[in-house]
């Protein structure tokens, strides 16, 4: 069985000039070819044929280039998922490196190229690629960063304890509405992901009113443009089909960009290494009838890319002052090789492919 993981939520960035009917047909057709032919000789010959056409054109046809691009990135993705399913994380990372270099050479989107360069930068810096690339995304204005006296208590989806009142002089940062009293904290901030916002909040007027009354600031972390003055977009790091920062990485990026270097207490994040992915208090869409759908969890891990997220958070920690957060730091301070080993021992990715 060949994996079919859609990237429609990413395509609007790349497809700013391919959002017409032809672009939609090319996306659907490329999905169908990858699904039906699964890397066999027809798919390979088609890709080689398109590449020859592009090489022989004095000025390449954007639609031909886009179709070639789609087939290639979806083949990279299918190979990546297969390596994960076979418990070969280093092979998966190598596939992602090739994928990132392909995007740098063939994408028509400046944004996506920058995202690929960010990806290569982190792989190189932490020893998973031979070269350390260039990245503007991780160049933090240190002059600004040294001025902030703000304190944030980032409370994640998998804590063993209720929010600790010891940190009530801080702004508590959450990712979903939780059934705990947070009113005693100095302030509160919520960073919703787009899927949860669109599914549970956008059209529910009662829930919108409740959230706006309960929390001081609410943002949506999204690559989509959102026309909602009550729920504005957070400042987002670059993301693409390669992967993108998830909850904690997005929160840290947003905090650093807005407030500079500040004190952060981080709790309830384990980089998918605990047996239970989400604590019972956390209202995840992967839970149904009080049971977590592990395959949905695995799809999310694969799409965001656990290794990239781990490295992204490590990079963000260079620009904040982490206070206490002892359990979190046990995870975050792991060498990347140790993290990969523990992740592959904890998670069985076979359901993504087999």
Span of the ends, CA to CA: 6 Å
Gross geometry: globular
Indicate how many domains the architecture comprises: 2
Class of secondary structure makeup: alpha/beta
pLDDT < 50 runs, ≥5 residues: 1-16
Percent helix among the residues? 40-55%
Number of strands: 8
Mean pLDDT level: 89
Strand content: 5-15%
Enumerate the strands of the largest sheet in spatial order, edge to edge or round the barrel: 4-3-2-1-5-8
How do the SSEs run, as a string of H and E?
HHHHHHHEEEHHEHEEEHHEHH
Summarize the main sheet.
6 strands, parallel
Please, how many helices? 14
Radius of gyration: 21 Å
Question: Mind sketching the topology for me?
Answer:
Elements: H1 8-14, H2 21-37, H3 41-56, H4 62-85, H5 89-106, H6 110-125, H7 142-145, E1 151-155, E2 171-174, E3 187-193, H8 194-201, H9 205-214, E4 217-221, H10 247-259, E5 263-267, E6 287-288, E7 291-292, H11 294-304, H12 306-317, E8 321-322, H13 326-332, H14 336-346
Parallel strand pairs: 1-2, 1-5, 2-3, 3-4, 5-8
Antiparallel strand pairs: 6-7
Brief sketch in words of this structure:
The protein is α/β, with parallel strands linked by helices and 354 residues long.
Overview of this structure, please?
By secondary structure, the chain is an alpha/beta fold. It folds into 2 domains: 8-125, no CATH class; 142-352, no CATH class. The chain is 49% helix and 9% strand. The chain is built from 14 helices and 8 strands. It has helices spanning 8-14, 21-37, 41-56, 62-85, 89-106, 110-125, 142-145, 194-201, 205-214, 247-259, 294-304, 306-317, 326-332, 336-346; strands spanning 151-155, 171-174, 187-193, 217-221, 263-267, 287-288, 291-292, 321-322. The strands form 2 sheets. Strands 4-3-2-1-5-8 form a 6-stranded parallel β-sheet. Helix 3 (41-56) packs antiparallel against helix 4 (62-85) and helix 10 packs parallel to helix 12 (306-317). The protein is globular and about 65 Å long. Mean pLDDT is 89; it is low at 1-16.
